[in-house]
């Protein structure tokens, strides 16, 4: 059994863990204050349609004041991956203006005529013309990177298509799947987090409501996996899955005890 007393960094998913859409979940503020007595906090999200600044502002509206350094998005992770593995190469980016700003902040050249590679983000402003350019470049054999793999995004009353659904459409047209995916559950974000915070895997916990991203991310990086049942996953669904968390709580508030 892993020991929560050894944790020096809690990575927290947001939607379904901290809040549900625009509503803060019960006792979140008290829990965050409690956790900060023991460790640092990092809000971790796969949603690349918004910037870190957007999330700081959203959390502030919900009564949680954090700094930009306490948010890490799959968009930021993708920029860092490109900086290391495709330095100075131009990108055709399928993404929102917020994601474009993130790329520009990292000095990654954006190009829609003859790019070196294609990056697919969760584009809530997706158009047919963007898809035409994307598939054209992929059919030319350009490298293909995606920010994260989520198929759906939480919304009320139903889920809405996320990047994974866009990937499926593109695959049908081009027979291409991403050469690399940067977000949860893959290891690139985990490695970067360990380097930034100078921590070992046993000192980091991932708290989230999704088995396929949050808990799988923890397992892939050998972090402590904490599943909360306040979002996507029900106890029955969890019991019927092979992947298992180290701890299962009704909500993040259970970390108060």
From TrEMBL:
Active-site residues per Swiss-Prot or TrEMBL entry: 13 (nucleophile), 15 (proton donor)
Names of required cofactors: Mg(2+)
PROSITE patterns recorded: COF_1
GO CC annotation: cytoplasm
Domain of life: Bacteria
Residue runs in coiled coils: none
A GO term, aspect molecular function: phosphatase activity
Segment forming the signal sequence: none
List of residues binding substrate: 184
Presence of the UniProt keyword Metal-binding in the record: yes
Cofactor notes: Divalent metal ions. Mg(2+) is the most effective.
Binding of Mg(2+), residues: 13, 15, 209
Protein's name in the database: HAD-IIA family hydrolase
